[in-house]
Write a structure and sequence with these properties.
By secondary structure, the protein is α/β, with parallel strands linked by helices. It contains 6 helices and 6 strands, in the order ααβαβαβαβαββ.
């Protein structure tokens, strides 16, 4: 029997992530058919916890862009299936304002109470694995934080902005590749 670390290394080596991105119409057409995993950073929030609050929440820009993104998904007829989220207020608020159904908070997408200080290797491994679990007929959405994204996908997530998403599709070999990277405000331009 292989040691767990070797098995995990083999599994995650299969996550082949292309650097090129598809044009917007191609991304929308693919998403309309389902079968993708959309991994996104929560919408815009202040970098510090506001006075009197226990954690960061969305700012005005984050609230309006999350609402507009959800409307764009509905207008573009992009089917949303499972939705997983960080347990933080800013991630849950992103989903609530986008009006995505039945979000499930999972600690692996969380910030561990450390905000921008980084996720763990176990969280990065979990996220890499989830990016290869493709649904049928709908798209899976995962909302997380910048350190988790860069831990799991260092090259593809470099410099990701608030609300930006990586869209994963099967690579044909049991892994995943990036179909595209979409900024939160660009969903409105994809008609």
């Amino acid at each position: 029997m292989r040691p767990l670390a070797a098995t995990c290394a083999l599994l995650y080596a299969s996550v082949s992530l292309a650097q090129s991105v598809a044009p917007a119409p191609s991304i929308v057409n693919t998403l309309r058919h389902g079968g993708c995993v959309i991994v996104m950073r929560h919408a815009s929030s202040p970098r510090e916890v506001p006075a009197g609050a226990t954690e960061r929440q969305l700012d005005d820009t984050g609230r309006s862009s999350a609402t507009a993104m959800g409307k764009a998904f509905r207008d573009l007829k992009i089917p949303v299936g499972e939705v997983f989220t960080s347990p933080t207020a800013r991630a849950r608020e992103t989903i609530r304002l986008a009006q995505w159904p039945n979000p499930r908070p999972v600690p692996e997408l969380g910030d561990n109470g450390r905000s921008m200080q980084g996720g763990t290797a176990a969280q990065a491994d979990w996220l890499k694995k989830r990016a290869t679990e493709f649904p049928n007929g709908t798209n899976t959405i995962l909302v997380t934080h910048f350190p988790n994204l860069t831990g799991a996908f260092p090259q593809q997530a470099a410099g990701m902005e608030d609300g930006e998403a990586l869209i994963f599709i099967p690579d044909g070999r049991g892994g995943a590749k990036v179909l595209g990277r979409v900024k939160i405000d660009d969903w409105l331009k994809m008609k």
